[in-house]
Structure formats: structure tokens, C-alpha cells
Amino acid sequence: MKFSHFLIKYGEIAVKGKNRNIFEDALGKQMRLALRRVDGSFVVEKKTGRFYVHCQGEYDYEGAVEALQKVFGIVGICPVYVFEDNGIESLKENVCAFVDEMYRDKHFTFKVQARRGNKKFPLNSMEINADVGEALLNAFPDTQVDVHHPDVTVYIEVREAFYVYSTILPGAGGMPVGTAGKAMLLLSGGIDSPVAGVRIAKRGALLEAVYFHAPPYTSERAKEKVVDLAKIMSSYTDSFKLHIVNFTDIQMEIYEKCPHEELTIIMRRYMMRIAEAFALESECLGLVTGESIGQVASQTMQSLRATNEVCTLPVYRPLIGFDKQEIIDEAEKIGTFETSILPYEDCCTIFVAKHPVTKPDPEAIRASEKLLEGSIERMVQEAVKTAEVISIKPQ
Ligand code: ATP
Ligand code: MG
């Protein structure tokens, strides 16, 4: 069956009281943006507390569903058959035609679930259920009614027209992007941070991101990989700014002056400081990382404490309780995994010590950082000043 309309179900945002309009407007905006990337012409309409997508003429059905499935805030996407209200007889006929076309094999159980939005319609929802149910049983003798566990639920909405659907494709859930504040993601080329960024967007946050590279130790191709990851993410997160920071001098300075087993922690602290400088400039309300407790030496609780210490903004770590496999599963689902595992060098791994501290003592770390005083401040300023900004847009 060719559908020209989708009924969009949204969950959590419906309960937001006075803020409901803000949430619905953000959802509408994100849906329109998502559908811009799909072949076809679409009109997104908000009507009587619901969203509809009207598809005009030929369009890419799979593409439209896929795009809508990336819009946070949507819980269900229902391809819906819409026809004029010509009374109950025409409703019965149209529902039978719909079921006939949708289900070749008629050996199934069903129930009809009607809602009467138009209170002028002469039958109430119970009566519609009974009448249409009977019509279906007569038309398709192999079917049976099962009101508890039906194979097929035929939903009917009686409004200014009739709306019939029996498929609810899952949406991404969450809150529409743009309904929370902005967050600064530390985006590496790895598996974790893209997943963390998309997770934060799922709660409605807008993103900005920062990537630290260390040319010539890290290649142009490693940077391109991060840009590619950001582009994949942006089909969920909306467009965002990516700051590319040249971290080479800072890393070399730490390497030369600080104990090698503390390199990673000190480096991570400088990343956080620089990320926070961009965050404050862009009015972000927090930083985001892909860290998870115990994953590597720099992510023990002691290390996280030491890294956290230099930030004044909250640091959001959406993956903190995730196992690596769970993160990989999610990376596969959002489509970043294949890019993340491409083998390009990362600035963290180049200067890594053989035996990094796993339980850094904050006092000792602060003492080591004293060794950088006098040179590092200028380097940090320079790194912030010379950062390249790339505007990331979904493709
Ligand atoms: P990922 O898979 O996200 O790279 P990881 O397992 O490699 O994570 P680390 O290298 O310890 O872990 O990094 C922890 C977090 O620090 C990352 O999730 C990311 O948020 C941030 N980070 C690490 N390296 C960089 C970098 N080069 N640029 C920006 N952020 C980084
Ligand atoms: Mg990494």
C-alpha cells in the first residue's frame, strides 16, 4: 500500500504542561529538517495536538521513515490511510479495503480500536469498534477477534476525516533537539564519544564539539575521520560547530616536563580546560565526554576525579555505566561504528606511557602541573586562538 501521510506519535513531550508549545515547535522544526534530506516533498502539520506528515506525490518511503526515526521526541511513526468522512458505511468499506491490501494472508486475529475526536459523529467509539469489527469478520472469514493479544490492531481516528492505520514503527524517543541547553562534546575519533554526543542530543541538548589533534603526529586523515563522524552524528543532533584544536605544543610540553606515567591525566586535564574555554564562549551549560568507569587507566574513578577537578561546568558522561559492548551496539545502531574503527592514530595514544597511573593523587598531579607554569598558559591561549571551526551539517 502506498501511504501519503504519516501520523506521528510523541510521548514524553506531551506531558510538559505550559511548555508543550516549545516542545512541539522544536519537534516540528527537527522533523522538517530531517525530511529536507529525503527525496520528495513533505508538509509537516500540527493539528489537534498531533503531528502529521503529508507526502506530496512520489517520495522515498524508506528514506522518510529512516529520517523520522532519527528525530528525537518521536515515539511512533504510523503510515496512515486518510479518507473523507462519508458516514459509517464508507468507513467500513474503506477499512476493509485497507486491511485487504495490507494483509494478503487473512489468517490473523485482530481488534479495532477507534477514537472519536469529532464528537458530532453519530456513533461512539465502542459502536465504531463493533460495527467495523463485524464488517471485517464478514469480509474476511479467516480472521478472528482477539481483544487481548491481537496479531493486528486496526486503529481508526474519526476527526474531520477518517484516519486508519495498523502499523506503528518505532521512533527514537527522547526529547526534541533544541529543548535543553547547549553542551560542548569532546569528540575524538573513537567509538565512545560520538555515542555520548548523540545520547546527550537525545535529551534535547544542542551540541558543539571540540577535537584535539597533534599534527604531524596525527594525520589529516585522522581529522577527516572525526569530521565524518560528526556528519553522521548530525543527522540526529542537528547542525553543529566543530572546533579543531592543535594540541601538539601542549602535548610536547607535558611530555618534556612531567612524569611520563602522569601524561595521560595531565593531557586530559588540559583538554578539559580548553573545552571549557570554548564552552563558556558559546554559552554551553556543560561538557560531554565518552568516558565510562574503569574502561582504561584514565577512566578509573580516581582518574575521573583528577580530570574533573579542573572544570567548573558540569561534565556529562552519558556512558559512565555502559560496558564497551553496549557502547559498540549503540555505535552500530546510530551508524558511527564503521567509521570509528578505521585505523587512524589518536593524539592520546601517541604519547602514552607504558605504565600510566591508575590511581592518580590529585596533589601529585597539581605538583606536576606546576612544572608547566610560565610556558603552558601562552600555549593554551594560542591553541584556543588558532582553533579551526568547521560547520557540520547532515548530508
Ligand atoms: P573514545 O572512543 O570516545 O575515543 P576512548 O575509549 O578512546 O574514548 P579516552 O581516549 O580515554 O577514551 O578518552 C576519553 C574521552 O575523552 C573521550 O570519550 C572523549 O570524550 C575525550 N577525548 C579523548 N581524546 C580526544 C581528542 N583527541 N579530542 C577530543 N576529545 C577527546
Ligand atoms: Mg579515544
Written overview of the protein:
This protein has helices at residues 20-36, 61-68, 87-102, 125-139, 192-202, 220-237, 248-257, 263-281, 301-308, 324-334, 337-340, 347-350, 362-370, 376-385, and strands at 5-10, 41-47, 50-56, 74-84, 109-116, 144-145, 152-158, 161-165, 169-170, 182-186, 206-213, 240-246, 286-288, 315-316, 388-392. The protein has 395 residues and is α/β, with parallel strands linked by helices. It folds into 2 domains: 5-170, VC0802-like (2-Layer Sandwich), CATH 3.30.2130; 182-392, 3-Layer(aba) Sandwich (Rossmann fold). The strands form 2 sheets. Strands 1, 2, 3, 4, 5, 6, 7, 8 and 9 form a 9-stranded mixed sheet that branches. It has a 6-stranded mixed sheet with strand order 14-13-10-11-12-15, with helices on both faces. Strand 10 (182-186), helix 5 (192-202) and strand 11 form a beta-alpha-beta unit. It is elongated, with a radius of gyration of 27 Å. The relative contact order is 0.12. It binds adenosine-5'-triphosphate and magnesium ion (MG). Magnesium ion is lined by residues 188, 190, 346, 348.
Which keywords apply here?
395 residues, alpha/beta, VC0802-like, Rossmann fold, 2 domains, six-stranded mixed beta sheet, 15 strands, binds adenosine-5'-triphosphate, binds magnesium ion
Architecture (CATH level 2) name of the largest domain: 3-Layer(aba) Sandwich
Strand content: 15-25%
Please, how many domains? 2
CATH superfamily of the largest domain: HUPs
Number of strands: 15
Q: What small-molecule ligands were found?
A: adenosine-5'-triphosphate, magnesium ion
Output mean pLDDT.
94
Low-pLDDT stretches: none
The residue fraction in helices comes out at 40-55%
Structure class: alpha/beta
Which series of helices and strands comes N to C? EHEEHEHEHEEEEEHEHEHHEHEHHHHHE
Can you tell me the overall shape? elongated
The CATH class designation of the largest domain is Alpha Beta
Query: Would you give the CATH topology of the largest domain?
Result: Rossmann fold
